[in-house]
Amino acid sequence: MKSSSMKRLFCKYVTMNVFGMVGISLYILADTFFVARGIGADGLTALNLAIPIYTFISGTGLMIGMGGATRFSISESKTVFTQSLYFTLMLSSVFFTVGLLLPDQLASFLGADMVTQQMTKTYLQVILCFSPMFILNNLIICFVRNDGNPKLSMLAMLLGSFSNIILDYIFIFIFDMGLFGAAFATGIAPIISLIVLSGHIITKKNSFGIERGKPVLQVFKDISLLGISFLITEFSAGIVMIVFNAIILKNAGNLGVAAYGIIANIAFVIMAIFTGISQGVQPIISKNYGMGKHNNVQKLLKHGILLVSLLSMIIYIVSFAFTEPIVSAFNKEKDFQLSQIATRGLRIYFIGFMFSGINTLLATYFGSIDKPKNAFVISILRGFIFIIPFTFILSALWGMTGIWLAMPFTELIVMIFSMGLLCISLRSSNC
Known about the structure:
The protein is mainly alpha-helical. 86% of the residues lie in helices and 0% in strands.
């Protein structure tokens, strides 16, 4: 493959997938904006307490989708999609059951008090009952993209997101449905996306489909290993939110959690950009790796590293310069204390994005070349091993400032480790 054609392919897949992933991340950001404007700080607190469960659902979908699609690209096996569907049905049924039977207990566990309990429970119940749609949507998006149709994947993600924004406004402001309306709008979005994606499945260009066969646990394991870094990234984001919420409640109360909700949900959009780049380059890397074209794999990796590094700097400069207008958009009541906490927190917390783009890319890269152990190590270090202890230690030393610093410290240390893993990998093999 010529260098110029590979660059065009890189730009095509990455650009479309970034737009699509940003679209999906807007599911929750739209909820955050409309809840902040339509319900206020209590609604924002309840939403932030419930969001970790959404990240678990999203991570499950990405694990199955990216793991299955990666194996599909490397091996071109027609049974992988069917096994991925079985896996989706099995895991989504767990979330659905929890949503039906345990929303009250889950809301209490996540830290809801008398003020936020009912709103948190309502949001959780709706999101969990729609979990099969979220997970299935992630699965189909990944397979359609890896099947040579990134444009349709992007279109599906964007239309789902736009429908969520429109329905959020209608349900919250026109019908006054509160957090139920926000959750219901978010639950409808993946259904819209799946309708769009069905266009690929029914065409002759489609090279995957449902094959006869029973569930195979070994294939589930293989899919999980290849997609585990995505699950850990999303799952750990949820765990970290729970930990942050608990510590912030002690330090700054519900108002602090509302401020963190603003920061965390803007951060979801930024991480979606890095995830979009990583997922966009994954099909091309996997395909070239499967064909033994290791020089192409290395060129694609270099393009990815340069792109995430440049975007990291731009994102931090823009977010620092426009911190106050960003925060005020989510501060309907013009609460000075909320504005003060969120403004300072955003400027410190977002330093971590200078390093997290490379970490996200390298975790995906290792999974794409069939080295899931390296991907797992990177994801587990940034998701659990470093950030949770840092949060407790630094918050004990410097209060809220220490909480915001935990993320940049973690991402910097993991980036150094990740680059070390990359150097070892490049020296020991062709990739």
